[in-house]
Amino acid sequence: MSEPTTPTRVRTAPAETGAVAAPAPAPTWRRLLSGSAGRNIGLVVALLVIVIVGAVTAPTSFASVDNLLVILRQASIIGVISIGMTLVIIAGGIDLSVGSVMGLASVVATLAAVQDLADNLHWSVMILIALAVGIGAGLINGIVIAYGNVVAFMATLAMLVGARGLAEILAERRTLVVQDRGFITFMNSDFLGVDILIWIFAIVAAFGWVLLNRTTFGRRTVAVGGNREAARLAGIDVRRHTMWLYAITGLCAGIAAVMILGRTTAGTSTHGQLYELDAIAAVVVGGTLLIGGRGTITGTVFGVLIFATLTNVFIQNNLSSSVQAVAKGVIIVVAVLLQQRFSRPPGRS
Q1: 42 assigned to some structural domain
Q2: What pLDDT is attached to residue 152?
Q3: Whole-number mean pLDDT of the chain?
C-alpha cells in the first residue's frame, strides 16, 4: 500500500528587512487643491468674499451694475499685460519691462509725425505703430535673453530703464494729446452695453487660453518651464521659443498702450509705471509658479479681478492707498506660501 501523501505547505518568504514602504497616498482634499480646478475654486471663493465685504460695507455704491463695469474697465489694461506675463512666467522667465514698453508705445503712437500719418490715412495707423513698438521691444528682450544668454531679470530690467528713458526723450517730458476724434470715439465706445476695453481684455484672455491649452506652442511653453534641458533634448528649439514668448509679452504691452491711449486720450512716458509688479502679482495670485512649469490663464484672470475688486472696495470705503498696498502685499505673500505648500509632490509633507 502506498503511503498517504502529505499535503505540501507553501512557505512565504519573509519580508526583506529594510524595504522602503510605498508613500502614503495624498489626502483627497490635497489632491483637489493641488489641481487647477481646486486652485480656481479657491480664487472664486476669495473673489466672492471680497465682493461680499464690498456689498456689506458699501451696499449702495458697490452693489451696482455700473460699479461692476468700472471694476472690469479698471482691470482690463493690467489684465492684458498679465496674460502675456503668464506665458513668460510659465516658461520660467520674467519680464520687468512691460510697463515701460507700454509707456514707450503710447508716446511713439502719439508723436506728431504718427498723428499726421493717421490723419492722411486712418487712425488705425496709431494702433499698428503701438503694436509694432511693443513687439519690437519684446523681440529685443527675447533675443538678448535667448541668444545672448543674459538672465531674464537683468535683460528686462535694462529694457525697463531704457524704454522709459527713450519715452522721455521722444516726448520731451511732455504729455502728447491724441488729436484724432475717430480713434477717441472708437476706444470709448461700447458693444452690447459693455466698454470696448473690457471686450479687448476678454478677447486677449480667450486667445491666451487657446494658445496655452490647445496649441503645440502652449505645450512647449509648459515643457520649457518644467525642464529646459529635457525640452531641448525632446527637439524643442528653446531659444527660438523663448524669443517668441517675449515678443508676445511685448505685443500685450502694445495692446495695453492702445487701451490707455483710448482711456486717457494722451501718451506720456509715465504710463505703465509699476504695471509690471501688478501683473506679476496677479499672475502669482492666479496660481502660476514663479519657477515655471505650471499656470493657467483662467487663474490669472481671477487674480486680476481680485486685485481690481479689492481696490474698488477700498475706494468705496475711503481707505488710503497705503492700506491698499499693505493688503496687496499680504495677499501676495499668502499666495506664494500656498504655492509652496501645495506644489510639492504628493506624499511629501
Answers
A1: no
A2: 92
A3: 84
pLDDT value for 38: 60
Predicted pLDDT of residue 27: 61
The DSSP string of 100-157 is HHHHHHHHHHTSHHHHHHHHHS-THHHHHHHHHHHHHHHHHHHHHHHTT---HHHHHH
Buried b (16+ CB within 10 A) or exposed e, 249-276: bbbbbbbbbbbbbbbebbbbbebbeebb
Strands 194-195 and 176-177: unpaired
Q: What is the structure's pLDDT at 26?
A: 57
Angle at CA of residue 286, ends 280 and 290, nearest 5°? 50
Domain holding 74, by residue range, is 67-341
> How far is the C-alpha of 39 from the C-alpha of 34, rounded, in Å?
7
Above pLDDT 90, what percent of the chain? 45
- 176 three-class SS: strand
Asked whether 62 and 54 are in contact (CB, 8 A), the reply is yes
In a domain, 27, yes or no: no
Rounded CA-CA distance 256/87 in Å is 16
Residue 309 domain-assigned (yes or no): yes
Name the DSSP class of 9.
Answer: P
What average pLDDT does the segment 343-347 reach?
A: 51
The stretch 269-295 carries a mean pLDDT of 88
Q: What is the CATH number of the domain that holds 312?
A: 1.10.3470
The answer as to whether 1 is a domain residue is no
User: What is the mean predicted confidence (pLDDT) over 306-327?
Assistant: 83
Asked if the model's pLDDT at residue 349 lies above 70, the reply is no
**Integer CA distances (angstroms), 11 to 8, 14, in order:** 9, 9
Q: How far apart, in whole angstroms, are the C-alpha atoms of residue 41 and residue 51?
A: 15
Nearest to 141 by CA among 131, 127, 154, 130: 154
Cβ–Cβ < 8 Å for 205, 79: yes
Domain count across the chain: 1
